Amino acid sequence: MNLHLASIEEALERWLPPETAEPSTIHRAMRYSVLGGGKRIRPLLAMAAGEAIRADSPGIADVAATLEMIHTYSLIHDDLPDMDNDDYRRGRLTCHKVFGGAMAILAGDALCTLAFHVLASLHELPAETRVALVLELTTASGTCGGMIAGQVHDIEGERQRPTPELLDRIHRAKTGALIRAAVRMGGWTAAADPAQMRALTAYGEHLGLAFQIVDDVLDIEQSSAELGKTAGKDAAQEKITFPAVYGLDRSKQMAHAEWRAAIDAIEPLGERAGRLRELAELVVRRKT
Ligand code: IPE
Ligand code: IPE
Ligand code: MG
Ligand code: MG
Ligand code: MG
Predict the structure, then answer these.
(1) Is the pTM of this model over 0.70?
(2) Cβ distance 235 to 216 under 8 Å?
(3) SS3 letters for 82-148?
(4) Mean pLDDT of all residues in 186-198
(5) How far is the CA of 136 from the centre of ligand 3 (A)?
(6) Of 58, 60, 76, 173, which sits most exposed with the smallest number of CB within 10 A?
(7) Neighbours of ion ligand 3 (CB under 5 A)
(8) How do residues 231-250 score in pLDDT, each as one tens digit?
């Protein structure tokens, strides 16, 4: 796992323009948010999925890094005053608190742009693979069932009656889509066959749901210091969450069931999927 983490950090460091590059404010803001911590779950999932298919896939750390760029952009915007209005992220002040709202919006936009620049630049991958990766990441981030769709439902859902249908729609899109894409991008990069891709996709869908259930539970059970972001925000903002719809105990059972289903889905991938099993465990057992 550490080797994967190190290559993800190296790829991020390499692709992010240096602080000295003009205009330096935007590059400082981008680097502040991307390189300032984070569990790196999505890039780790991409690398573990690639490893489940073959030992070495050229370019996979760069592909993985693009997921972290999109994810960090979504967090910078999620924290803005007109969205969740958060002052803390990853144990420090949010991007807009340090650099101002305009620069935070632009840093998010810039990370989104950079992700697709990187994918298009990966000449070690066949052109058709690069196109598949771009399609996968744009679909997962977009407005038709992707991350932005989920964020729209999440914001519009505030103070609405929490129903299972609305909850499912929000969570599959705002978090599930990018986690599903992470494992599928690992699969594309490693040239997975259709059956392997189906196994990875099912794993990603179940784990994506487990991930957001746990995020909702931690928002209630953990302290802000432990989370590195403001705890208790979902209830304060009347968000539609798993605990709001099903209660805490049932939510935890559901996270466990999704974890189980994720593990079962990758059974056909055998021993090589060991890291995917470890990551699934980490997602449900994490405390931050
Ligand atoms: C938090 O994601 C936002 C959600 C999509 C729930 P993470 O818990 O992966 O945040 P970092 O990247 O580790 O900070
Ligand atoms: C954020 O969900 C999801 C995205 C950024 C796409 P949350 O609003 O629940 O994330 P946190 O709890 O602020 O990290
Ligand atoms: Mg939010
Ligand atoms: Mg938030
Ligand atoms: Mg949350």
Answers:
(1) yes
(2) no
(3) CCCCCCEECCEECHHHHHCHHHHHHHHHHHHHHHHHHHHHCCCCCHHHHHHHHHHHHHHHCCCCCHH
(4) 98
(5) 22
(6) 58
(7) 78, 84
(8) 999 999 999 999 999 999 99
